[in-house]
Amino acid sequence: MPRADVIATLAAGHLAPFVVAKGERLAREEYGHADFTVAALAKDLRLVASQTPGLPVAHAAAGLLARYA
Fold it and tell me: Domain ranges in the chain?
């Protein structure tokens, strides 16, 4: 699955607020699209998963992204 499709799939699912918020934060800090990488998103999802053990979708999403990072 292409990276853009992975990100689009996450943005359409349960993690949409997180994915959108990250994109907005990157935009405010004037990062380019290259900085919104699958590896960066996977790292952030692992952080979310570690802080929110009751959100199993974060663990699954982090694992999925790790395969594409």
Answer: 3-68
